[in-house]
Each structure stands twice: as structure tokens, then as C-alpha cells.
Design goal:
251 residues, alpha+beta, 6-stranded antiparallel beta barrel, 4-stranded antiparallel β-sheet, 15 strands, 20% helix, globular, binds zinc ion
């Protein structure tokens, strides 16, 4: 039972929020907690849900293993507790605290994958974001020969300290600006009224612009050094490119 309730996605306005006060709107039969608003990102688009805790006013903590969209309902987020956690009451005020170290790594890797998608100009067929590594699958029959150059370009883009920003656009605005769609690698989903676009760089210096609902760092310099890992063959035309954080830019 999820009713018509919606969760306010506070992480979407500010991905740097580490704690937030919220109220419990529902506790499902499995102990999953739904709040009126949250900073827990829910698993989607290849980015895993956040873990962390919900702090009760009486000092008790509810450890949260992950956050999910229940039954594919993209308007709601369920906080899934670890085993044997206290159950909060409907209407109760809690403080959400996410595992910030992990989330920041996910934000860095997520933003890095946007850059990777620009440097490999092939259709993306899948992807996954982890705190230690990430990957994108491309429809790419041949592996490019200049991987060291691509890696250097990636690190130069990171060090160029491009701003990362988001903008909401209505479908009408998008249709009125065909040049915007041309700069986008991924076509936005239509039929939902408005689309959130994530831009790396600004104006003429835009590096990437694509529809995305995930969490990103505010500046590419936060990503740090990157290393392209194994490129695996996944089918006749599909290649998986693995990406890792590196120790230094001198590789
Ligand atoms: Zn993104």
C-alpha cells in the first residue's frame, strides 16, 4: 500500500545535504519507512540507493540498509531497515543521515561516467555506479586504439574544474530548442511534462548535457584522478568499459 503519497526528493535540489528532518508518512508491512521528504537516493539509473540511519527524537537509531522505489513507483522512496530495527510511528519526526563518504564517492563516480560517455561516442546500452568503480556498456563493435589518450582527456576534463549544474525544462521548451537536443547524447524521456537535465561545463564550454535524475558533484575537480580499466566484450557489438579512481593524475 503506497496510496497517493509522494516523497519530496530533497537530494535533487541539493545533493550535498548530509542530514535532514522529515516526518514518517507510512511504515509498510516489511518495516520499510516512507517519509514526507528525504535525502536518501533510491536505487535507479545504475546508481545504488543510499544507506545511513534515521535518528528518532528519543535517541534511538534505525539503521537503513538501502532506499528503493516501491513497485517501480518513481514518486516514492522506501527506506529499508537492517534486521531488528525499531519501527517508527506514523507522523513521527526523524532526522535522516546518509553514509556521506559512500554517497560522495558515488557522486564522483556518477559524474565521471558522464564524462566517459562523452569520450566514447557510442550509444550507451547499460551502466552501473559503485563507490570504488563504475562501468558503462556501449554499442561499440571495435575497441578504440587510443585508450591512453582517452584516459588523458578524461583526467584533463576533471582537472579543468567544470561546473556541474542542473536545469529543468518543459517538453515545450525542449521542442522549441532543437539545438539543445542536438548537444544531448541521451534523448530525454517524453510524456512526463518536464525533464531534468544535467550539464557539465557552461555555455559554449558545455562538455555534456543529458537528462539524469541522479546525484552529481558540483565541480568536476571533485572527481579526482581516474583510470580506465578492463574493456570487456559483452556480445558481438557490446563492450563494457570499466572505470576506477586512481591514486594520481600521473599515470
Ligand atoms: Zn547523472
Amino acid at each position: 500500500m503506497t496510496g497517493q503519497k509522494m516523497t519530496e526528493f530533497s537530494f535533487r535540489d541539493d545533493s550535498y545535504l548530509k542530514s535532514l528532518q522529515a516526518h514518517v508518512t507510512e511504515v509498510n508491512e516489511r518495516g520499510g519507512v516512507i517519509l514526507d521528504r528525504t535525502i536518501f537516493y533510491a536505487t535507479s539509473g545504475g546508481q545504488p540507493g543510499d544507506c545511513g540511519l534515521l535518528r528518532r527524537e528519543n535517541g534511538e537509531q534505525i539503521e537503513i540498509a538501502t532506499a528503493l522505489h516501491p513497485d517501480g513507483d518513481k514518486g516514492l522512496i522506501v527506506h529499508v531497515p537492517n534486521d531488528e530495527q525499531p519501527r517508527p510511528e506514523i507522523g513521527e519526526m526523524l532526522v535522516c543521515e546518509i553514509d556521506w563518504d559512500r554517497r560522495h564517492k558515488l557522486m564522483r563516480m556518477h559524474t565521471a561516467l558522464h564524462i566517459l560517455s562523452v569520450l566514447f561516442p557510442y550509444p550507451v546500452t547499460g551502466g552501473s555506479i559503485g563507490a570504488e568503480k563504475g562501468r558503462l556498456d556501449f554499442n561499440m563493435p571495435e575497441v578504440p586504439e587510443n585508450i591512453p589518450d582517452i584516459q588523458r582527456q578524461m583526467n584533463e576534463t576533471v582537472q579543468a574544474a567544470h561546473m556541474v549544474s542542473d536545469e529543468w525544462i518543459t517538453e515545450e521548451e525542449l521542442q522549441a530548442k532543437p539545438e539543445m537536443v542536438k548537444t544531448m547524447k541521451v534523448k530525454p524521456p517524453m510524456g512526463q511534462g518536464r525533464v531534468r537535465l544535467v550539464r557539465i561545463g557552461q555555455g559554449d564550454k558545455t562538455v555534456d548535457l543529458q537528462p539524469c535524475g541522479g546525484t552529481h558533484v558540483a565541480n568536476t575537480s571533485e572527481i579526482g584522478p581516474l583510470r580506465i580499466g578492463k574493456i570487456e566484450k559483452k556480445g558481438r557489438e557490446n563492450r563494457r568499459v570499466n572505470l576506477h579512481f586512481a591514486e594520481s593524475f600521473e599515470i
